[in-house]
Amino acid sequence: MRAASNNDVDPLDGTVKSQWIARLQTIFKSYIDNHSDILQLRYVGVANNGKEIVRVERRDGIVSIVDDSALQSKAQRAYFKVITKLHPGELYVSDLNLNREFGKLDFPYLPTLRVAMPVFDQTQKIFGFVIINIKAQVLLDEIQQDLSKELDLYLINERGDFKIHPNNAMTFGEDLGNSNAWDDLFEPLAADNGFSVAYDVSAG
């Protein structure tokens, strides 16, 4: 950060921006190498129109540092706008959705959870943020692994989009352009005991 505001040279130790980036790349790669559930680890700038400054990713089991020419701007993503409004000490945790690169869904589909922490300069102005993409399929599998085969499990977000459904084709409708949602498939039943009960309209 000090280098960015001083012609890319840190006024305290003389480190140039390229050295700082190389160090961060090494740290990120080591972290992903030792955490198998991490898909990406990135440092995203704010003043540079939301472009990734450092990005390390895991693809097909291989962890690699992404070349500068392949770094992307994330300024148009909804999470960028939310993260840049955070205050010191606050974290961002995303909705669970399918990963996208250059605006297109990855295939095979990658259920992803993002956690981000903003980084501020000496004047407490946001400079950028560190964001981790976590492989959410591990979490989804763990939720379901101890479930009795006689039971159906549903996991939805606040808008009723299915993240877990007995029919996998019904999941992640928001990402895939499907209209499947909880309110479309279930109707509430009256309950006097404090519990919410829903009726599966597709069951007749």
From TrEMBL:
It comes from the Bacteria. Residues 23-179 form the Histidine kinase VP0354-like sensor domain. Pfam families: HK_sensor_dom_bact. InterPro entries: Sensor-like_sf, VP0354-like_sensor_dom. This is Histidine kinase VP0354-like sensor domain-containing protein. It comes from Pseudoalteromonas caenipelagi. The lineage of its organism: Bacteria, Pseudomonadati, Pseudomonadota, Gammaproteobacteria, Alteromonadales.
